[in-house]
Design brief:
mainly alpha, 66 residues, 61% helix
Length: 66
C-alpha cells in the first residue's frame, strides 16, 4: 500500500508538501507519519524514502518548507 501516490518522482519539496497536505501537521511530523505508514515490517523503498527525508529534515532543524 502506497502512503502517497507519486512519491517515487517527487522532489523533496513536493514530498514535504504532499505529506503536509495528507497529515496537516508541521513538515517534520507529517514526513514522520508517512514513514510510519509506509513501514510494513520489511522496510520497503517507500519507507526508506520518507525515513531518509525525515532524517534530513531533523538534521537540518527544518520546521518549514523552503
Amino acid at each position: 500500500m502506497t502512503v502517497i501516490e507519486g512519491w517515487e518522482v517527487f522532489t523533496e519539496e513536493e514530498a514535504i508538501n504532499a505529506a503536509i497536505d495528507k497529515y496537516r501537521k508541521d513538515p517534520l511530523t507529517s514526513v514522520a507519519y508517512c514513514a510510519f505508514a509506509a513501514d510494513d515490517g520489511r522496510k520497503p523503498p517507500e519507507y526508506r524514502f520518507w525515513f531518509d527525508l525525515f532524517l534530513k529534515l531533523e538534521k537540518t532543524g527544518s520546521s518549514g518548507v523552503a
